[in-house]
Amino acid sequence: MGAREPLRCPWAGTDPLYVAYHDVEWGVPVRDDRVLFEFLVLEGFQAGLSWLTILRKRDAFRKAFDGFDAAKIARYGARERTRLMKDERIVRNRAKIAAASENAKAFLAIRQERGSFAEYLWEFVGGSPFRNRFRAGQVPAETDESRTLSKDLRRRGFNFVGPTICYAFMQATGMVNDHVVECFRHREIAKLR
């Protein structure tokens, strides 16, 4: 008899890439500005698509977007945007590509103002992750905190940062622990506070 699979959040499914993302990365608190910027851009590209689609293209996105170097992306002009629209390895959406460049500028402005993007973001959850205790089927698509974050990001010039995208971002980067209580990662992530 083989080893029994641990209980996971239902969304993780059985695709090995998705399972690995769930088991290793999703919900782990992130305070690295470059990683946070990458997640914010990718969450914007995910709008209307599945996260698995984005995961499968993540390495291509990293190459196409200069390793998510916000300073470089902020300088993207027509030539870079045209190059990205022709890159079949990524999601080719003119509005999302333009948003990545505009979001890079807004990201850099926050870093200039606050010293770090992480410092700014984590204030929306009081500096440490919210530990939710949801069961399967109870996890919301957005919260008051994601609505507040969305509103402030938009005020600062960000695009593709609606409340649902912001909540998915907060979940992915560990600002909230939304592994369901039945999931083996719920307790592990709680220890990472």
**Oligomeric state of the chains?**
single chain
How would you write the strand order of the largest sheet?
A: 1-2
Number of strands: 2
Gyration radius over CA? 17 Å
Helix and strand content put the structural class at mainly alpha
What is the arithmetic mean of pLDDT?
96
User: Judging from the principal axes of the Cα atoms, what is the shape?
Assistant: globular
Distance between the termini: 36 Å
Q: What is the H-and-E element order?
A: HHHHHHHEHHEH
Biggest sheet layout: 2 strands, parallel
Question: Beta-strand level of the residues, as a percent range?
Answer: under 5%
Tally of alpha and pi helices: 10
Helix content: 55-70%
The unreliable regions are none
Detailed description of the structure:
- Helix 2 crosses helix 3 (51-64), helix 2 runs antiparallel to helix 6 and helix 2 packs across helix 9.
- The chain has helices at residues 16-25, 33-46, 51-64, 70-74, 78-86, 94-114, 117-122, 144-155, 163-172, 184-190; strands at residues 130-131, 176-177.
- The protein starts with 15 loop residues before the first helix and ends with a helix.
- The chain is mostly helical and 193 residues long.
- It has a two-stranded parallel sheet.
- The longest helix is centred in the middle third of the chain and has 21 residues, at 94-114.
- It is 56% helix and 2% strand.
